[in-house]
Amino acid sequence: MISIALAGNPNSGKTSLFNELTGARQHVGNWPGVTVEKKEGPLKGHDDVTIVDLPGIYSMSPYTLEEVVSRDYIMNERPDAIINIIDATNLERNLYLTTQVMETNTPMVIALNMMDLIEKRGIKIDTKKLSEKFGGCPVVEISALERKGIDNLITVVLKNAKEKKAPKPVNFDADVEKAISDIQDIFNLKDDAGRYYAIKLFERDSVITENYKMASDQKEKLHAILADVEEKLDNDTETIITNGRYDYIAEVMPSIQKKKVAKNEQTMTDKIDSIVTNRWLSLPIFAAIIFVIYYVSITTIGSYTIDWVGAFFEWISGGVETFLTNIGAADFLIDLVINGIIAGVGAVLGFVPQLMILFFFLSFLEGCGYMSRVAFIMDRAFRRFGLSGKSFIPFIIGTGCGVPAIMATRTIENEKDRRLTIMTTTFMPCGAKLPIIALFVGALFPDQPWLAPSCYLIGIVAIIVSCILLKRTKGFSGEPAPFIIELPEYRLPKLRNVLSMMWEKGKGFIIKAGTIIFVCSAVIWFVSGYNWTLQAVDPEDSILAAVAGVISPIFAPIGLGSWQATAGTISGLVAKENLVSVLAVIYHATGDGSETDPSLISNIQQYFTPASGMAYMLFNLLCAPCFAAIGAIRREMASAKWTLAAVGYQCGFAYVVAFIVYQVMNAIM
Ligand code: GDP
Ligand code: MG
Fold first, then answer.
1. 45-88, pLDDT tens digit by residue?
2. Is any atom of ligand 1 closer than 6 Å to the C-beta of 16?
3. 566 Cβ neighbours under 8 A, 6+ residues apart
4. Which of 49-63, 119-133, 411-425, 499-513 has the lowest mean pLDDT?
5. Quick check: CB of 145 below 6 Å from ligand 1?
């Protein structure tokens, strides 16, 4: 078995290349944090070769979790070869990582990606020189986007892996080289990746130094060497190495890359950016875009699809009912299938076309480069509240689903910021919460089309308020980390990419409908239709009513003292999409049970006032997320205590907001 790792800076095209090499459909995004865990897949046409997509990193120092994942993989699993993928339009900066990977004594090929852009920009790269200056490692020009040079790359890498030819690392100053070789002597680091470890010890890399069992005389000698060099070169050893790398790259660059003299002309991207990222216009433009997208996908085009899907399910439901009646199925079975399962699953699936249209637009914004600007614009705003734009990336991802959003927080170096982001990410309305919004806004505020898209704004405000509050506490205080994001050039994204991003975001709902929702619908049907002695009863006397009835007094101050509302909230913990279908079941909705079912809408109008409906909607948008997301919080926080704190905070916050809204709306209406 041959293993080949893809290593490179964020946004260099690793995932695009990975998809080309393996035929996989991993998410390609133009911001950091999209690949946070390594992904593996067999090389197309070579079952004995595994390709590993590592998270993007700028260096092999353990500042971020992604760096730890990538570095551990390279150093502990020792892949047979590394493809160091480089964004050729940012050659100089990308080569910094190259100098480090070269020290790991792993066979390596440089894949110069984005060659399509290089030609357009009139840049010339001398690949022979590049190879010569970087340890003789083979260089292959590719374009992952246009699928060029991939076959050649495969041939070269496989040859390289078989020959086990690692590049010869770059040399530092004589003084530094002397120190490194002394360290190699002292710690017996002569072979394999010895030089890598010696340099890490030289740099006082915290992780490597801690893990090294040193005898006390070794420790003393190391300290003496480092102190000596530091005095001589008047700098700390970490900086000495960093500078050494940059100096080397700067020295060889002119011979490798020739740029046409840049004309002082604004590119199209500059022109667009001068408007879109303008200090005053950027936020209104962002709000307008979100409004239009939401309006088009949910309110106009999307509402037709709901009718079609509704009609389709009615047809299925009718057919199945006739069939079951004809074969003489028991009444309870017909009821379970029709009102439990088909209604429950149908309510979720009915929403899928709308969601897909919404995700199509969001994916388009991502693919054309606008979403990176949003992160950049938001950084300016978020900095005032003590968060960086890095936190905004999870928030954007959270509009699709909270689980990947919580995982995307791994790019945030600062542990406090990361925790704060994890705790607040799910305030963003995820796709599953949209049916709740659509139902309550549609039923109680039909003349206010701005209200539904405003829920994104409410999410953002909830996050900002939480940051201001929590940043004042000991657990979260401190400056946000600096935020660096490359703004990719604007371009028309490829339809294939947009569609696959859309599918990536949306498939979760279809899978959920077939699994969790399917089972839940059956369970809810049962607990809402039977009592403790397993007799069929009206929902009012059911198990669900009894359980929810015990809890519901807690919600009386926010106008939601009914067991039905409580039951909806509980089912929302399993999956937020459930809430609508559960309300449909317990209110005996007679239509398809989706958020546009007229009978359900009239139920909502009957049982909720505008004030209590608003409070209920807000509570469910802001309270603890679904179990899948709570699980993700638990994983990422790696602490039960913090998970509890997060869920407790979210529920408390939601309660307070709902309370205020309920009381104020009651007072003024
Ligand atoms: P990763 O962060 O390294 O995994 O990079 P991705 O594969 O997610 O790609 C980052 C961005 O660069 C995406 O918007 C890609 O569409 C784009 N991209 C990747 N390869 C190429 C290429 O060869 N040419 C151009 N023009 N864009 C590319
Ligand atoms: Mg990636």
1. 898 999 999 988 888 877 777 888 899 999 999 999 999 999 99
2. yes
3. 548, 549, 551, 552, 555, 560
4. 499-513
5. yes
- The pLDDT tens digits for 599-643 are 888 989 999 999 999 999 999 999 999 888 898 898 888 889 999
564 vs 524: CA distance, rounded Å: 12
Amino acid in position 207: V
Are 81 and 72 spatial neighbours (Cβ–Cβ below 8 Å)? Answer: no
In whole angstroms, give the CA distance from residue 492 to residue 564.
Answer: 48
Which ligand sits nearest to residue 39's alpha carbon? Answer: 2
DSSP 107: -
Q: Tell me whether strands 123-125 and 139-141 are parallel, antiparallel or unpaired.
A: unpaired
Cα→Cα distances 175→179, 196, 228, Å = 6, 17, 10
Phi, psi values for residue 503, rounded to 5°: -65, -45
Question: How many Cα atoms occupy the beta-carbon half-sphere of 140 within 13 Å?
Answer: 24
Burial class (CB in 10 A: 0-12, 13-18, 19+), 76: exposed
CA–CA dist 509, 409 (Å, integer): 22
- Lowest average pLDDT, out of 41-45, 335-339, 353-357, 507-511, goes to 507-511
Structure tokens at 656: 């307070």
> Could you tell me the pTM of the whole model?
0.68
Q: Does the CB atom of residue 466 touch ligand 1 within 6 A?
A: no
Q: Decide: 111 in ligand 1 pocket, CB within 6 A.
A: no
Q: What is the CA angle 229-232-237, rounded to 5?
A: 40
At 182 the pLDDT is 95
Nearest Cα residue to atom 6 of ligand 1: 13
Q: What is the position in ligand 1's atom list of the atom closest to the CA of 11?
A: 2
Q: Which residue has the tokens 């909720």?
A: 608
> Letter for the amino acid at 193?
A
Tokens of 27: 């998410």
Non-local CB neighbours of 32 within 8 Å, separated by 6+ positions:
10, 11, 56, 390, 393, 411, 485
Is residue 486 within 6 Å of ligand 1 at its C-beta? Answer: no
Q: Residue 401 has which token pair?
A: 């689903």
